[in-house]
Amino acid sequence: MDNILEVKNLKVHYPLKNKETLKAVDDISFTLKAGETLGIVGESGCGKSSLGRAIVQLVKATDGQVIYNNQDITKLDSHKIRELRKDIQIIFQDPLASLDPRMTVGQIIAEPLKNFYPELTKKEIRSQVEKIMQEVGLIPEHINRYPHEFSGGQCQRIGIARVLVLKPKIIVCDEPVSALDVSIQAQIINLLISLQKKFGLALIFIAHDLSVVRHISDRIMVMYLGKAAELGDSNKLYQEPLHPYSKALLAAVPIPDPRLERAKNVQPLRGEMPSPVNPPSGCRFRTRCPYVFDRCKVEVPLLTPSNVQPRRVEQVVACHLYNPASESLVQNSEV
């Protein structure tokens, strides 16, 4: 299957008033296939949302490429970026805040159609709006209600309908369930899976919780402080994570059984995430890593296939523990 999107060495840096630079995204690369879901996880402040917004061109990339339809969309002018919106859309984190409270649900969902297809009649627009409302589980008879009259989960369905009405090829989901109750989270994720299968969508699903992305993702990329720590098949990453940071995130996922949860011997990550303005030298995770050694302090680990476990070449990791120079250390550790 061909790649529908290719991100190459993408960087998003924000200049600060004191002449320092916040490196929100620092050299990220990945591909996305049609109909695939790539989950992106990491702690708050790791650069997930900046990456997603740079892909849809809501923020300008400092460097690197985002290739869609054989063209680098980071180089497009404002007119061509506007046309791109039909194919690449984004669902925001706060469902209610992303909706205009002065507009009815019908007006909110119809707005993209009016902007991109002005030739449509009012009757045609209403027909498409009612149809997409049914697709996302909303009642068409509520077309004249306002956002405040709906629950958080229903507001997120409205946001999904607004995006889906243009029939995009790619949707970036920027923590779309983090503001919802757990039971509602499952409903929204199941809805996205259903819509993906029906319309052949490619999804980039951003979250800070590994347990949330597991159900929906084909592959997962773990981010830490603007860089990719690990990227690979979802099931393999859950069964046997390679990077110490991935291990820590997975160990922190709660177990539904209270007895098993109490019996877990989980060592929480030590310290706080360093500032992206002044990240550590070498490996950015070294200040919190239980396996740090001298090489970590001076050499930036590259995202490469594990040489220690060659059968897992489809899973790449940025960690010196898995390089040949440190193979003996891996054998003596409990990684």
Question: Can you offer a commentary on this structure?
Answer:
With 335 residues, the protein is an alpha/beta fold. It has a domain at 3-224: P-loop containing nucleotide triphosphate hydrolases (Rossmann fold, 3-Layer(aba) Sandwich). It contains 12 helices and 12 strands. Helix 3 (105-116) packs across helix 4 (122-135), helix 3 runs parallel beside helix 5 and helix 4 crosses helix 5 (152-164). The chain is globular and about 70 Å long.
Helix content: 25-40%
The major sheet is characterized as: 8 strands, mixed
Radius of gyration: 21 Å
Q: What's the rounded overall pLDDT mean?
A: 88
Number of strands: 12
Number of helices: 12
Q: Note the overall shape.
A: globular
CA distance, first residue to last residue: 34 Å
Which regions are unreliable across 5 or more consecutive residues at pLDDT < 50?
326-335
Question: Helices and strands: which structural class?
Answer: alpha/beta
Q: Biggest sheet, strands in spatial order?
A: 6-7-8-3-9-10-12-11
Which strand-content bin applies to the residues? 15-25%
| H-E order | EEEHEEHEHHHEHEHEEHHHHEEH
CATH architecture assignment of the domain at 3-224: 3-Layer(aba) Sandwich
CATH superfamily of the domain at 3-224: P-loop containing nucleotide triphosphate hydrolases
